[in-house]
Amino acid sequence: MLYKFEKDFKHYDRLIESYQHVPQDEIVKNACKNKNEIKIINPPISMLKLLQLLEKDETHYACVDAIAESCFIKFHCKDKNVKEFFDNIQLPKAEDITSILSDFIHYYIACGNGFLQKMRNFAGKWVGLNRLIPSEVQIIEKYDNYGFLNPDYIQIKNNQKKIFKGKDIIHLLQRNSLSNAWGVACKPIIIYIETLYENKQFDYNQFKNGLLIDYIIMVEGGSLSEKQSYTDSNGKIIEIDPFNELQNLFYNAKGNKNSHGTILIETPDPNAKIRLEPLRINENNFIELKKDIRGQITTYHRVPPRLISKETPGKLGGDDNSDLELFYSTVIQPLQQRVKQTLANEFYNEFKWKINPDDFDFGNIAEIAETNNFKL
Question: Would you call 229 helix, strand, or coil by DSSP?
Answer without folding.
Answer: strand
